[in-house]
Every structure is written in structure tokens, then in C-alpha cells.
Amino acid sequence: SIGPSLFYPHKKHQNTQKRLVIEGESSVLSLSYPPLPSPPGHPTPMASFPSPSIVAAAAAAPPRLAPGLSLSAAAVHHSSHAFRPRASLALRPSATASPANPLRCSHRRAVTPRSRRRTQGLGAASASAAGILGEERDGCLSCFPRSRRRGRPGLARFAPCALPHTSGLSLHSRRSGPKTRRSHILRAAGPDEPHVASPTWSEAALDKPYDPTIRNEALEDVLDTPLPSHPKLIRGQLKNGLRYLILPNKVPADRFEAHMEVHVGSIDEEEDEQGIAHMIEHVAFLGSKKREKLLGTGARSNAYTDFHHTVFHIHSPTKTKEYGESLLPSVLDALNEIAFHPKFSSSRVEKERRAILSELQMMNTIEYRVDCQLLQHLHSENKLSNRFPIGLEEQILKWDPDKIRRFHERWYYPANATLYLVGEIDDIPRAVREIEAVFEHTLSGNEGAPMSTGSPFGAMASLFAPKLPGGLAASLTGERSPATDKLKPIKRERQAVRPPVEHKWSLPEVDQAAKPPVIFQHELIQSFSINMFCKIPVNQVRTYKDLRSVLMKRIFLSALHFRINTRYKSSNPPFTSVELDHSDSGREGCTVTTLTVTAEPQNWKSAIKVAVHEVRRLKEFGVTMGEMTRYMDALIKDSEQLAMMIDSVPSVDNLDFIMESDALGHTVMDQLQGHDSLLGVAETVTLEEVNTVGAEVLEFISDFGKPSAPLPAAIVACVPKKVHIDGVGESSFEICPEEITESMKAGLEEPIYPEPELEVPKELITQSELEDLKVQHRPSFVPFKEDDVVKVFDNETGITQRRLSNGISVNYKITQNEARVGVMRLIVGGGRATEDSESKGSVIVGVRTLSEGGCVGNFSREQVELFCVNNLINCSLESNEEFIFMEFRFALRDNGMRAAFQLLHMVLEHNVWLEDAFDRAAQLYLSYYRSIPKSLERATAHKLMVAMLNHDERFVEPSPHSLEKLTLQSVKEAVMNQFVGSNMEVSVVGDFTEEEVESCVLDYLGTVSAAKSSNKEEHIEKISFLPSPSDLHFQQVYIKDTDERACAYIAGPAPNRWGFATEGKDLFNDIRSSSADEISAPANSGKTHINVRNHPLFFGITLSLLAEIINSRLFTTVRDSMGLTYDVSFELNLFDKLDLGWYVIAVTSTPSKVHKAVDACKGVLRGLHHNKIVERELDRAKRTLLMKHEAETKTNAYWLGLLAHLQSASVPRKDISCIKELTTLYESATIEDLYLAYEHLKVDDSSLFACIGIAGAESGEDVNDDEPELGLPGMVPMGGRGLSTMTRPTT
């Protein structure tokens, strides 16, 4: 199964979003059942159609042997998050950033196993190109950076860019967060020498067939062979103890990553220092003058802090654009100053103190509080339970510069740090010399250079430095390593070793008392969730035997996930989701297995019973031979695909992989080595061993209550205080620990039966059926009406345009960006805008219903999912206000592209609509709507959206009243009426041949029925902004909460991307210039300039640049100078088809400052007239967007977005010039052009809308009093459950 995140191994829209998913841990398995619905306004949940979460299990992530997101791994990630609700505020595809939550403070669903990681790490400042013109945005990667990079899915999801690279859905991985480093399953320390070691298992040995008669002893000897180390990874150490790693990497071209990791974090803080490591991160990073000098060079920088580490990182071009000088010395010099020579001035300390206190309030959502609860109980025996990086407010208020400086002197020194360089670094010896020149003399006069003889990482390679090889193993045993004993404090206290983190393991032989289930109850919690944890030592993957064990666990757990998914998906299950997570955590120093069950409160007992019953059934009977064969094959295919992409893995992904591997003590291999090693062990695996190894992982659940069973590390239930009961209303929710225990035991006592084998189709359309279709429909390409040409090919972009005889338009581009991988998107015009007053919610519920069912033709959901698994396909279905999308990611091997086209054909021609799927879809949206008042951000955003768009429900989630009026037939008609040949456009991008793609297009798209034309013309009811005057232009929302928080949204009208405003007004009539289409640049510039005002992308280009400039000013004014917020952003929501758009400013603050923050934001927005834009600001904005564009053109996903609407009749102004001239348009835009566009952003009092949300114990107003007709007073989604991590990576 291929996941959207595949677009690059945990691809980060790197320019827009940082790191991504499975937060910081090396995830061996991360699976989730039924993803949740996406809020209305958002593209419907990336509803995996049929959510190949199966492989999510199987291929979900073959042992992570090398960087890069495997096809299956991506699928796993995708299936886990795809269906989760997203804010309906944003209602528009993000420009170049993945859709993200509009409320930076929301976290991913609090009950997921990964959620506990969110509280583990904080970032300090976000200075990314995607953010503010290259200016540093101070935002802890743990708290907001991701939101800044990816755009918010709420009020606005437009990241500054003229053309969005996605049309409603993103093929990129959604990351957990910038600060939480990517999770891989196998990462690892390399050889013990500073340089490379060659593989120790020869190719001959790997190629030799496995002989089943081989003696067990001989097999053990072979499996004990060490895994090969990465052949290009260079390791070294300076005389002062600084370790460095260098890895040459060509993607992206002419850029490199430099990360300085200091091995100190919140776990090293004393009782009166809680949060001081995070404070130093802020002060050191944002106070660096040398880092500021990099602004304008195209470099982006950021920082984060977690339990054990503080990391400062810079993503930089290799050379300056003007003079071609190397930037590596300047980048290293900046890192040296930040890490080892910061200036703790009183002014900077006070500025960052204000920022951190604001950040603390911003983070303190209910999701974050749930995460803290999970960590506190999981690690109740050690400091991980009470040393969260954000710190304690009362202590943060007290520290003076001297106190902060003393902590820095104790821990920030070269021997306690590691420098990572990954990127286009061709001259390794020169890079080493530059490292030596910058860092060699970084040593205080009274400090000696501690050296270790036992490890290439020096003295700190001990149990007390989990980031270093050997450290983890030592900490597991509680023994001191020889290397540690040799390290003696030399004149300074900071040389002392750190206290170890001790764990109580969930092992049969460990004698400890059983912990009763813990219940965390809160009024802001909406649903029931329970987390069952098991904690064991990390098994470092260093030999083939270790790798073999990981492979067997993955096969076993994949089967469990798929069984739960399929067994109950076809009927209304008692749970909302079931997630199984088995992952290594370098930050926590352990391996944690988590079973998380989420359900509606009234169904919680049945949900627990189902989950534990299925676990016991798998443990007792094991996986079948068919399951083992299926998942093994998927893993090998996935690994092979990843190996083929070895030269297209971005530097940051390779770097993340290495850092996490070193933290866990795994061996680092490249993709080819990983694939060869996997093949080497695969043939030695037996069904009996798979079942034995897998059963051990699940014993803490399957044998729960037995004397011999390992005890769970913790069982934590997070539940609401009140629940909604139909016909009754709100009533108290009662639950006790004994009931939870009884439900678990009851589920284990249910009768169990073996799993039957399932027939998996090899193809959905047989060759004979295809021949019959071709005879019946006679597919062919037809001429374009304009010029009677059958095929249009553009040499400059490599884009081909075709049109089929049934009216379907086709665009494709052949590219080698990703080896033997392809992506495809179907775009159907209409979307939620076609809903009328009698069918509110019909499109979004209908799309969800179709994806919930997952059946096509005579094939069941289970069969379709396994078909996707076998062909490495990931498919998603979603909708937004303008369009319905279906998107595919597939491997171009074993007819993978034909398989994807077959599935698309079956969805279009033989879709199946099920009553129970409709019931589930409606219930999910009903639950989501009722949860709005539980979120400050969603309630605030909803209230603003409802007011601004004059109570138009098409831009928010459907109300209970609207949902009650829907039927299966009405939602089916609302969706299928849009699937008309001439209303459909398919774009394909990948590493295929012209013959391959055109054959698939003719065979499977050309044979789609053409007669599906609707007799009535598409009708869209009028969309308008609330007229002035009105008392709804400024509103407030109050929510009762134990803790105080505040946020605000400011929004107003804007034109759409193509220059149309409300009521169809064409703004080009106002701004059209009489100048020629092209003018020559000055003689010395050598560039061709375009008269931007005559180009259809005028508003897309100029508003994108304006957004960058406004964001920069908001940060420097409202955040940095005035200290009123930690997180503020300006985002645009530009539609393509609808004649409107809007902008949104989102700001978080405290109740005492939020009104001032709103006024300050309005001042910046309106201040462009008296505080004129200068050339420096415009140049920086251009550089940021052009760099982003250049980097993204190396990805298939971005090209898929560029191709969107190229032949769409509903977006008539888009043509090939909008793609070809994009770079020139940015370069040609002038300050005068920006002011012309600015005139059409409505910022006056009569047009601007604002809503302030305040939460606290004194908030007494009822948010439900304002709009009874909607059932809930105006509150708009902020991203919904599951997106909290996506908006603010906190681990």
C-alpha cells in the first residue's frame, strides 16, 4: 500500500513543513482503524478508498533499514491519518503546503499511541522559507512551526504560492512535527570506526538460496553476522570531543542540512530548572547575529528541545547566489555561536520569556493535557513523567540571565554535541577542514578536552547520552559502561555524567505490583479512549537475526490490524478507531507497544471487548500461511521500490534517519543494503516463528489477568464528564477502573475461531472483460475543439494534454523524479458548493459514505484492500467546496499502474453504496459537530466563519438538523451527478513511458460510460459575505476550562486566484495595463520580464508575495517587538472555481493580551499604506517562493498540482503559460503590482470580521446561545481530532 507520504520518504513539504510523522520514534508499526471524517469545509478526509491500512500493517514499514519512506510505510501513515477530520474553516487546498489545522494548538487525537510523544519535545524558533520571507519565526517546533509551514486547514489553508500544488489533498506525508524527528523502524549507529566499514555479508551469501535442511546451529551463526554499515557515511571526532557525521546526498540539488545536536534536554534539569533547556534554545537561537546574517541567502533555520536533546538546524544553499561563495563556513560559524557562544542579554531573555509563556498557554489544549497524562502514567517511575520540555510557568518567570548562563555552561560544550552534515557536499576533506577551523578552538580556557578510547563518539557514548551508540543498551541494564568510567570531570561540574532514566519493564520475570487502570476525566474531552501500554527494552537492530525478528513482528501485527479493520468495517463497529503501535523511542529509551481504542462513550465496553478479543484470537491461532505470504511479499516489494529510489531521498530525511538510528543503537544502512538484507533473512522465516515472536508482543493483552503474563506498563482511559444522549441531552458519564478491567476480561473470554483464508483478486477487470468493454465503447482520443489537434505536447514543461471520446480530459508528465513510481488524480468539478438549502452536507457525507463502504463491483472491501496491498497502491477520496478528488499512488512494477487504473475504472463504473456505510459517515460528522464546543480554536473559528459567510453551511460542518434530512439516495445523487465525462479531468505523473500511460488511459478511462451527463446544468446557490453594518463583525466565544487560554481569528474578503470577486466581478477590468505582454529587462539583467498585470495569474502571484510580506511583519511586530503572542500568521484562501476568496489572521495569546494582539494584527494588515513595502522585503519574498517552487518541482506530487484544472472549463483562465511562466512572473512582479492587488483585500471595518475565543474558569457565557438554528452557536472546526499533532508537533 502506498501512502501519500511517499512522495518522499517522510517528505516534508520541506519548504513548507518540516519533519513529519510518527513523531520522533522509530516506529515498527503504526496502524489505525477507521480514520475519522474530515470536517466539511476541508477536503473530505483523505478517506483512503478502501483505506489500505492493511499494508499499513504489512508493508507499513518494512523494517526501516534505510532512510526514505517506503511505499507501505507511507500507506501506514496515510491510513492512520487519512480519514481524520480536518477543519472546515479552511475550505481550500493549500498552495504549496499540506493542509494543516488552522489552530496551531490542536494536537492529533489525544488517545493515539503516538500522542504521548507530543509532549516530549519543544522547538524554539521557526525561520523557514515557507514562513516569513526567510525571516526567523520564533516558534517552537513543538508548538507551531508545522502549522506555519503547512498552512491551516481551518480558516485558510493557502500557503503563499500562486498555484496550489494540490487540489484538495496532499500526497505528502503529514508530519508529526518539525521538532519530532521522523520515525523509522531501523536506524542505526554505523561502524565503530570514524569512517566506513564494508558489508560483512557478501552478495554471494545473500544470493544463495536458503536450504531448509541447514542445521539450526549453522543458521544461527549466519544470522549473528553484523549488518553492513552505510557505505557513504563519514564519522569523525575533533580533539575537543565534538563528533561529526557527513553524508553526501544530491537531493535537493545545491543544498545541504547542518544540524547541531547538543545532548542535553529537559531530563537534565534540576527541580528548580524545569524548562530552562527550552529557554536556552530560544535565547541562543534567536539571539544569534551570525544566524541573522544568513537571512536573504536562501537558508532556513529552526530549533527544538526534547527530553534528551537540543537541536539547532540550518537548511542552506551550498553557495551564495550573487558570488558563488561557499555558505558552509558561514553556516558552521552560526551553529558554533548558537550552541557554544550565545549572548544571554537581559533584553533577549525577557523577550523570549514572554514568548515561551505565550507558547505555554497556546500549547495547553486538551489534547496536550491528555498527552501529558499518558506520559505521566506510562513513565510514573522516572523523570520522564514530570520533565516536559516546555517547563513550569512559575519557574520560567524567575530565572535571570545568570541562572540560564550557568545551565548553559554545565552542558553546552563540544564533547557533549554531535554535528550532522547531509547534502551536496562533494569535497569531504574540505568539509572536515572547515569543521575543524570553526569548532577546533571552541574550548574554554579552564577546560580540558575529554577523550574516550572506546567509541568513535567519545566519552559521551554512555548510558547517560541516549543519542549515542551504546548508550541505550547501557541504560537498559542500569550498568555503567567502561567509556563512561574513563570520563572524569575536568575542572568543571558540567563534565559530570547525567542521571540514568530507569524503567520498570513489562516482562514476565519482572516482579512488580499490577497497576489498576487510570481514568482521566475532563469536560473538554468528547469521546472515550483507552490506551494499554507495554514497555520493554529496545532491541537494537545490528545483526541479521535482529532484522529477522523485526520482520516477523511486522508480519504478525499487520495481520492483527487488517483483521480488526476488515472484520468490523463491513458492519457498524462499536469503536471509532483501533490503533496498534509497536515502536522504539530514542527519546524515552524504551520500546512501547500500545493498543488504543477510541469509541463513542456509550459504546466503550463493547469497543474494548472487540479489540482484546481479536488480539487473543490472533495470539491463540496465529497468522495463516496465506497472510504470512501476502505480507512478506508486500514488504519485499516495498523494500525493492525504496531501493530503486535511493538517489531521490531528500537530505533531511537521510539526516533524520541517521539521528534516530544513532539514538536507538541500530545499524545505519542505505536503501540497497536494507533491501539486500531483507531478502537475506526473508527466506529463513517460518510460520511457526512468526506466530511465536508475534504472540510475545501481545501477551500483555492476550494473557491479561494471568499470573504468568507481563503486566501492562499502564492502562489509561481518557473520558468526558458529560455525554449527549438522544432525547435526553447532556448527562454525566460514569465509569470506574473495575469496569474497565471487567470489560477486558470479558473480551478475552469470548469464544474464538481460526481465521479463514480470503481470496485476493489478481485483477479487478479480466482481459476478456476489458476486450468486451473496448468493443462496446470504442475508446479513442479526439481532437481539441480549438485547433483540431489530437495531442498537445509542451516541450518546455514536458506536459502532454489529451481528450477522450467520452469527454474525460487527460494530462500527463513523464519524470524520473521518483524511480518507477507514479501518481494520479481525478478531479471532478462541483464539490460542496453544489449543495442547496435542502441538501446541506450531502456531498461531504456522500464522499465519506463511498469511502466507508470500500466495495466495487462484486469485490468486498477486504478484497479491494488486499488488491491494493499486493499492487502497492494507495488511494484516497475527498471533497472540498469546489471539487471531488480521487488520488492514487502506485508502484510501476508488476503492472502496478494498470492495477491503479482498474480501481479507478471500477469506482467510476461499479461503485457500491451501502446503508451501513452511510450511517457511519453521518454519525461521524454528527460527533464531530457536537465536539466543536469542546475546542476553543474550533469554536472561535466556527463562529467567525458562520458570520462572515452569512450562515452558509457549505463552508462549515453540516449541523445535526441537516444530517437528519439526508438519505443514502440523496447523498449518492449529490456525488454521482458530478461524475460526468466532460466534468472530469485526470492527471498522471511518474516514471512511465508514453505507451504505458496512454494504453492505460484508453483501456480504463476510455471505457468509462460517456452517457452519464446530467440533464440539468450545475446550479450553485449564491455565496456572499455578510453585509455591513452588523453586530457580527466582532464576536467573542467563552469556554469553561480549568486553565486560561485565548485565541483570535481576523478575516476578510479577497478575490479568487484568477481575479474574480463576489457576484462574478472581473477585477482585471480595474487593473489591466495597456503595456505590452512582454518587455525586455534592463540590458544588464539578462532576464525576460512579463507585464504581470496582463497575466491571468496576476492575483495568484501578487497575493502570494503579499502573504509572505505580511507574515514577516506580523512576526516582527506582534510577536517579536510587542510580545503579545507566540504564534501569529496570515494565510490566504483562494478558490479556483468559486468567485471569492478570503484571508485569515490567526493569533494565540493570553486573555489579558488577546484584544491588544487583535488590534496589533489589524494595524499591521492596514499599515501597508503608511509603512510602504520596500525592495528588500519584496526580494526576500520572491526568493522564498522561488526556492520553494524549485524544490517542489522535484516531486511528482507538486507536478500533479500544477496540472490540476489545465483543461477544466470551470477554470478557463488556466493554461500552460501559468506553469511555464511561473518563475518569470514572480521575478517580474513589482511593488506597484503588489499594491494593486492589496487594494482588493478588504481590510476596512465594514469588511473585516474578528472573533476572540477565551477559555478559563471564569468564562461564564454559553457558546450555544447565539445561533440556535445551527444547533451549536457558531463554532468552526479547527482541524478536528487527529490533527493536533499535525498542527503543533510537540514531541
From TrEMBL:
Keywords: Chloroplast, Hydrolase, Metal-binding, Metalloprotease, Plastid, Protease, Transit peptide, Zinc
GO biological process: protein processing
Function: Cleaves presequences (transit peptides) from chloroplastic protein precursors. Initially recognizes a precursor by binding to the C-terminus of its transit peptide and then removes the transit peptide in a single endoproteolytic step. In a next step, pursues the cleavage of transit peptide to a subfragment form.
GO molecular function, a single term: metal ion binding
Origin: domain of life: Eukaryota
Family matches, as Pfam families: Peptidase_M16, Peptidase_M16_C
Name of this protein: Stromal processing peptidase, chloroplastic
Listed GO CC annotations: chloroplast stroma
Cofactor(s) the protein requires to work: Zn(2+)
Organism: Aegilops tauschii subsp. strangulata
Compartments, record wording: Plastid, Chloroplast stroma
UniProt cross-references to InterPro entries, sorted A to Z: Metalloenz_LuxS/M16, Pept_M16_N, Peptidase_M16, Peptidase_M16_C
Coiled-coil residues: none
Main location: plastid
Entry annotated with the keyword Flavoprotein: no
This protein's record includes keyword Transit peptide: yes
Family according to the record: Belongs to the peptidase M16 family.
Start and end residues of each Peptidase M16 C-terminal domain: 399-635, 965-1185
